[in-house]
Amino acid sequence: MIFDAEVFIRVVAPRASVKSFRLQPLPAKIFNIALMGMASDVPIGVCREHTINCSTSWFLAVHAVVLFILMLGNTVLMTKAAMAITTELRSWDSSLDTTRSLMVQALLK
């Protein structure tokens, strides 16, 4: 199944929460979308932990939230630079998740 960004935008754009994002200043948009990306990264991170590294499902789990943030950013009319900052915030959270995972694995040994 090929994922179509236009369908995502048509489905998500009329929602009240997305309409309220459009009225916010840019720093608030960045913060809110970064939080949504981090929250959506939790279940995807669980999926990522249970897949073989560098497999197709692992690759999709690693990059799914980035696509979500980019499409949501287009929906709420963010600039490309702001979306890059938001994606970087999300990857920072993901690196913390990896660090926590490594610490837990070290403690369990």
UniProtKB/TrEMBL annotation:
<keyword id="KW-0472">Membrane</keyword>
<feature type="transmembrane region" description="Helical">
    <location>
        <begin position="58"/>
        <end position="77"/>
    </location>
</feature>
<keyword id="KW-1133">Transmembrane helix</keyword>
<keyword id="KW-0812">Transmembrane</keyword>
<protein>
    <submittedName>
        <fullName>(rape) hypothetical protein</fullName>
    </submittedName>
</protein>
